[in-house]
Every structure is written in structure tokens, then in C-alpha cells.
Amino acid sequence: MQGKEQVFCYWRSQRAIQEIQERLSQCDNLIVYDLETTGINPIFHRVIEVAAIWVQRQGIQFTEKDRLHQYFRLPDCISLPDEIVDLTGITPEKLSQAPYEDECLEEVMFFFENRPVAGYNNLGFDDLFLRQYFYRNGGLFCPRDSFDVLMMAHDFIPRDQVENYRLETVANYFGIKAVQYHAAFSDAEVTIELLNRFTEAYRNGETAAVCGDKRPEIESVAYWGKAGQETEKDRPVHRIYVTLCDSGTKIFYDIISGVWYTQSLEIDMEWLETSAWEIVSVQSEKEFQSFRGKKKLKKKTA
After folding, report:
1. What is the sign of the dihedral through the CA atoms of 195, 196, 199 and 201?
2. Can you spell out the DSSP letters for 193-238?
3. Which of 2, 20, 112, 113 is paired with 67 by a 20 to 30 Å CA distance?
4. 192: left (phi over 0), alpha (psi -120 to 50) or beta
């Protein structure tokens, strides 16, 4: 008999949502981008296509200013998996006509510069790949800020209204049509449309966040992570777990994406986050993200 699949709900505090809104309001320029890659691990796999759109704020909307598009030829020692060909339509023949990744570094670096970036799941995927691409070729990917539109979708779309939070599902929810999914430029264009919708939603104070009222006793707060360099299927993981006394409910803060995941919507997550900060003696999210260790509390006695 197979074990029951663990279901986690996303949660981000009102403080964090307000900070996102404030950071977005300070951005007059953004690079909205999407990558296609040979796999899921930024250490083992390679970027094969980058599509980036430079947008500028025009009133309350971001509109296109310029574009960058480039395919990367793979080294002879790295093959293009068949499943990636089927998913993206990118073939080995197409890549054989493209320049190698190091030949494109200067052009890509100048386009991105240190402008803020946005993407769909970029915090957990594209940013990691681009950072590794720059590093591998002697560059440094250091955007002034990074906004994940996937996280924004969680902020505004209740979980019971969509099957999942994939780009295509969320776009269909809003009636947005794409030329082709898993095509870098098309995905970036859809991401811009969603970004504009969510930017307006932030201004209007909308949210789908659910917060319960239970405040169970906390047993410990502990960091756990791995570099994601063991196998091709491994990905970087950096989490801070909050263990509750006399409860099997799992709750953790994902450091890479900056959000909480919980198995229970009955817990007061605003209280839990504040308590976790107090336990590890920090006063800001940035300090909390830097926590490495374990703090165990003594159980209260009757």
C-alpha cells in the first residue's frame, strides 16, 4: 500500500506581500525572462535557450522596450534529451547552428546588467540556471531584485480554484492565450501579462492568503539543506523546519523562494512566523534566511 501523498499549502505573510508591492513600485525597468534547459539541475544541466524582454513602466503597466533571444550550442559531451526535444521543439540540429554559451556571455550580461528580473518560477529554477551559466563562464549574475510571478499567483488565486499553479493553468484561469508553452519567448510574454495583473492586484490590496487561529506549542526550529550536486535529479534545497509538539503537521520555510509551506490551514501562520523569528533571535526575513542551526525548546510541564 502506497503512502498518502503529502499536500502542502503555500503561505506568505501580509508583511511579505506588502514588501513585494513596495519593491515592485520602485521598479521602472524589469527584465522578464524564461529559459529552456536540458534538465532540472543547474549544476549538471545546461541552458539551451534564453528569451528576455526588457519592459518599462508606462503608467500602471509594464510595456516592452527591447528583446534578447539566443540559442546555445551544447558541448560534444552533453546530449539533448529526447524528452526536452518533445517538450520544447528544440532539436540538436537547431542547436548545432548556434554559438556556444561562452560566446554569448557578453551580450547576455549587457542586456541584463543589474536590472531587476522577473519570471515564472525563476527563484526556484531560472535564476539558479542563469547564475550558474554566468559563473561557469567567468561572469556574475546579480540582479538588483528578483520577482517570482509563480509566487504572486499563489498570493491571489485560491488553491481550490485551480488544479495546479503551472503557467498554462494560471494563464487559462485569467483567459490569457499563449502562442506555445515551453517556448521561451511565448512563456515570457504570458509572464508579463500575469505580472501586470498581479501588480494591479497588489495595489488593490487583494489576497488569497488563508490564516487559521490555532497556536500549538513549538518544539524546535531547525535548518536543513543540500547543495543539489549529488545526482542529476537533485536540486538545491534550503529550508527551515518548525516542528510542533505532539503534532505530525509539517511546516517549513523555503529559503530559496522566501515562502512558507504548511500541511494545515488551521494554524495561525502569522503567529508561527513571528514565534520562529523570536526563537532564533532575528528581527527580519533576511536574518531568518541566514539562520543555520537548530533551536530546541523545552516542553512546558503541567
Report:
1. negative
2. HHHHHHHHHHHTT--------B-PPEEEEEEEEE-S-SSTT---EE
3. 20
4. alpha
Q: Would you say residue 3 has pLDDT above 70?
A: no
Strand pairing report for 251-254 and 61-71: unpaired
Task: Give the helix ranges, DSSP H, for the chain.
Answer: 14-25, 82-88, 92-96, 101-112, 127-136, 149-156, 167-173, 184-203, 269-279, 285-289
Neighbours of 126 (CB within 10 A): 25
**Contact 82/114 with Cβ under 8 angstroms?**
no
33, with CB counted inside 10 A (0-12, 13-18, 19+), is: buried
Residue 300: per-residue pLDDT: 59
Cell digits of residue 172: 487559462
Question: Residue 249 carries which side chain, given as an amino acid letter?
Answer: T
Largest CA distance in the chain: 73
